[in-house]
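Collaboration report, partner site 2.

Our partner group contributed sequences for two proteins of shared interest, and the home lab folded both. The records are reproduced in the order in which they were received, starting with the first partner submission.
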Amino acid sequence: MYLRDDEPVEVRHVQPYEAVKAYRCPGCDHEIQVGLGHKVVVPTDAADLRRHWHVGCWTQAEKRRKNARTQR
């Protein structure tokens, strides 16, 4: 899932002890393993499109989003 640069999102950090299920990161397409802290990103207008991201993958995606917004 790729977010639009202007799409408002809510970001929540999942602590390792809260990570009880494996997910697939949309940033790198690798598994986020059980017990690994990560980010949950929820588009404000579409909560059903929430995705779980590795911290590093989300950081890179957010940098790209911010750069795209400032270059307008």
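Second partner submission, folded after the first:
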Amino acid sequence: MKFKNIIQNLGANLLITLFGLVGSIILARWLGPSQRGVFAAIILIPTSVQYFINFGLSSTTIYFVAQPDSDKNTIWSNLIVISLVQSILGIIIGYFVINAYLQNYEAEIINLGHLYLLTVPFGLFSMYATYFLQGASYFKVTNLLKCIVPIGYCIGIIWLKFQQHLTIDNLVYVQLIIQFSYLIIALFLLYKILLIRFAFKIEYNFIHQMLSYSVKIWFGDISQLANSRIDQFLIGGILSSKDLGIYTVAVSVAKFTSVFADAVRTIMLPAVTSKNSFQEKVAETLNFYKKYWIFSIFFHLIFVFSLPILIPFVFGNAYSEAIIICQILVIGSFFINAKTVLSGGILGMGFPEIMSYVEVIGMIISLIFSMLMINFYGLIGVGLAIAFSYICQFVGLAFLMNKKGITYKNLLYTSRNEVNKNLNWLKNAIQYFK
């Protein structure tokens, strides 16, 4: 297991998450639950559209770039063409969806939603550039790039507050400036590091190969998008903007638990992809996963018991309702984060369809149970539905991996020797920070 890279990515993810959390805390305190909910409603559709039209090309980019002797000029040329088409479609789709979703809001709010659609082309090109560098294992650079938006956004919020201009429309303008800056820096580093002698080369057969791989991921990505947005769509449409603001805080805190899982997956996908045989890929996947599993148990337990003190202290008593919702989501996150780590191995083995099946399962469960529970139990009901969906996704993934020859025993059982070995790894991680 590439310990140094894991630690570096963990540090970057911690930094990203902390700045994102600080930004969320500041907005929650300075805007209040209702206005926080309005801002969440504005950005919900554009961010969802960007994810929807991505067509699974984020992981596909890493997969093809990480392969030995990959033609990087051809890959990037194809991505440019695809991104242009995606951007046009995204803006058109987003425009009409925003009109429908925000129809009960003021015209100014709807216009801000339309304006925020500019983040779709900015986000697509900068995202592909970042994942291109990640596929080539330039992790320090990608860590730097991923820090730009959360750090810039946090600084922008603080600047607006001290200038006495912290309004929803100014928040949208700040996001646009930051996203455009991210795009420029990402493209500059990509061409400086990898595409020094870039020559535009379109190969339609290769586009077909990329899309054939990505479509298997895309169905999973769409389902994952639904899993991560169904709750907020329903709350924004059925309950009040205050409820959406409270739930948004619960989600942002629970998301903190994904920091380590995302760091492991970042290193894991190109590491597994680069292995030659299936047996080597499986061994590398289990090596990553079992080390993560030991750490994850302790981390989630400590986190869930700290929330009754953490949320009121950090966000204020106005968000006390978010405590129980966040605890429920963190319990579910224990399973969804394990699924995130395993997905790096599954995609690296060349089985993207497995993740699609799992995400579809989660989407169906999220949709059905969220719609049933929201009317009876409100925000708590939605939290329970989402957590149950997370658990089902992990169970479904374990079942499908067993079908591919990665048995339940290898996946879930750890011998005493393995436990001791992984605990030693955890001790080394702690000493590394000292």
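Feedback sent to the partner group on the second submission included the following. The CA atoms of residues 148 and 377 lie 39 Å apart. Confidence is low (pLDDT under 50) at residues 429-434.
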